[in-house]
Fold this sequence. Notes:
alpha/beta
Amino acid sequence: MAASNIAQLEGLISSSVNKEYPDYPPTEAQFEEMATKIRDLMHPMYPVDDIEFAEIRRRLRAKVAVRMDLGIAIIDNKCLHQSWLPARRADLDFFFWKRYKIYLEEVKGWNARVSGSLDRVSDEIVDLLGDPKSDEPFQRRGLVLGDVQSGKTANYTAICNKAADTGYNVIIVLAGMMENLRQQTQERLDAEFSGRKSEYLLDPKRDIENIPVGVGKYGQEKRIESFTSVVKDFDKNILRQLSLSLQSVNTTVVFVIKKNKSILNNLIRWLKSNNADTRGVISKSLLLIDDEADNASVNTNDSEKDPTAINKAIRELLKLFRQASYLGITATPYANIFINPDNEDEMRGDDLFPRDFIYALSPPTNYIGAEDIFGGDEDNPAKYKDVLEPIYPIEMDAFFPFNHRKGHSVSELPPSMKEAMAYFLLVNGIRDIRGDVNTHRSMLIHVSRFTDVQNEIRDLVTAWVIQVRSDLQNYASLSEQESDGISSIAYLKAVWEKHKLAEKAGKSGFPMLWHDFLSGYLFKAVSPIDVRAVNQQSGATSLDYFKHREDGMRVIAVGGNSLSRGLTLEGLCVSYFYRRSLMYDTLLQMGRWFGYRPDYEDLFKIWISVEAIDWYGYITGASEELKLEIARMKNANLTPMDFGLKVRQDPASLIVTARNKMRLATFVKRPITVSGRLLETPRLRADRESLNTNEEVFKEFVERLPEIGLRVERDDTRFFWNGVSKDEIEQLLRDFKTHPWQLNFQGAALADFIKSDVDMGDWDVFIAEGSDEDTYELKCGNELLQINPEKRAVKATNRQISISGTKVRVGAGGAAKIGLTENEKKIAEDNFRIVKPNASSIPDKAYLNIQRKPILVLHVVSVDKVKTDDKGKLRSQIDEGVEVPDYLFALGIGIPAIGEEKTANYMVNLVEFRNYYNIDEEEDE
């Protein structure tokens, strides 16, 4: 009852604050006065004690402060599209949108400013679609670009509601490839769009027809017809039994279907035979929303998921309707619609290309995204950098090596996984203390793509949880000294102390004692925890959050790609992720840990491989740069086609291109933008010959610097030369050997580009330095330079040495500003802040977007073979039998982007590429 009182009172205060302060947040004093007044007024009905009231106020203060900016759209002004929504607004009652807005504020706890921003954003997007009440036929194509788990579904749900309000007859939502994802989407649209439980609507017996849910409780004067349900994807036989067709209803019809060739073709056949006129055209308006528009893998062996066949069906579906708008939704700018076409003309001719508009969403300020976890640098670390708990191959190779196969036997769980599970158990207790008793809590375990292996892990995790639960039931009430003698409880206590959870469980300044927590809360918190496998074998009902909406589901979910793509893990507190997936787009899609952590942002943790941390850092930076391009392009009146070309020429797109072509080709060749970015060589060949060659060419270049350049004294670096001929740089890049996996730095291609660029003049060159106290001697003409090398951990196999800076980098941030005057730095920084005014730091890219000389950075890297992390594990991971020299040599180049962007013709040898990436990794088995 106490929990119910808390929820009721919290909802009343939230609703009242929203009504009183719709345009700006209340001051602290205004909020406190209003909250106290409502508590006193409602005390007879919903009594809460002072501690519970303090928790309510703390949660609501955080929600009241949330803001959401409007998005940015780039449109093709050459299209004959007229803005239409403002002119029709006076004639619309926005029934569906209004009840959704009330639902967001009263049930979801949104403040009025955020729901107001969603109102304006969805208005802008709907206005870019076709007007369903116009007399003219239309075919509109658009794309919404958001962040993983950031609320894209809320955005397109708002669009669905407004599409129904404005007169769209049919809305089709393509909800990913998996049935469990389709069900989750259907369930959400039942609650937030149609307002009725769909599982009863398509039952031929129709014993129960209309159970209102979600928005349905805020008005049923109008209705949405759902022709699919949570228990059934599209099925023409059921519709026939119920005599349902588009002609038999006079309201908006919604379909939520899987992205599956057979289902799409069945829908097309049903539409043609039951709804089309004699010309084969349906004289109605269609909005087709392609959720996770990039989720059809181009390498699948499953014909039902073949993107060529699926996209053909989507095109046919759109052309059936006289009026059709296609809206793709994606969380990655590296979308196949940009990257997969063989050339620009093919991309231009793709009928699903978002030729009319691309709209980039801004997430609310309480969103925790990739930039907040993996962004930043040493000087300005990411806000949530400390949530990362690195997993090392030296541990995991004994349990789940990256290359394990289907028959891999699992007899024991890794120590780090047990620590993550123990942490999850403890977090459940802390969240109970904070009053979140009826909220969902999830833990993700993703270490294998094989169903059999996942099921074995589930069984071992289940056994572990049962044992711990039993020990807590039997021994948690013993004295602390006695309970310390129980191994599982002693282990939980060790994890509690290691992660300093006493402070987080207690009140400000009053840490909770371990024994109080153990005896008073832990067993009750752990008791409901269930362990589920989420894969092809377990089916779609593994995570039935909906059935636990009243009491909150507590689950450890074990799975593979189907768990990590599209599916929302409610209340995700702990993630354990150890997979080799170096494809940028799949990495972003697998980031289930991005999103919102209301009232537990200080508790969530991610156990993740050190390799993935590096890659996430890199792709986060690359994605953020592309999103900034949308703002620049809007200001320059550029089009979606210009953005598509920009993505195709981004260095990070090469790896996605290579992945997409792996089954079909031996070489991929593409122009890649090399200006306006700092390119480095963090991945080197591991063979002795290549390493010796690099050392020789590096040292020879430094020795000749007094002859080929002019030494300049500077405050920002000790070793700087200008006036170095581009011919010298060209030759160095030809001779220096990088690893073929270092796709964005191809020495020969860069050398060819430098040679052919007639506008390129002399270069600046400097030797980067680090904090290593042991100096390294470099011969420079007649002088011996005493260099302070940059100390770095490495990951080394017999094929490759990876220098582990952040974001797959060699040097620290700021290298590109070396050599600039103070005025030049200010110009670069001011230009960058025009596009991103709230940036916490200035990236190297910004200093390459002004008029300046190109720059070469020379790196002497001291390999750190002794430093350990806070767990006592060596930071450098060097495979047995692999010899890594004490010093490595690396390069970085920065070519300024002034005027026309410069591209070099890069090539990927897919035969060699296949040695490093197994495309079957993308498919669960």
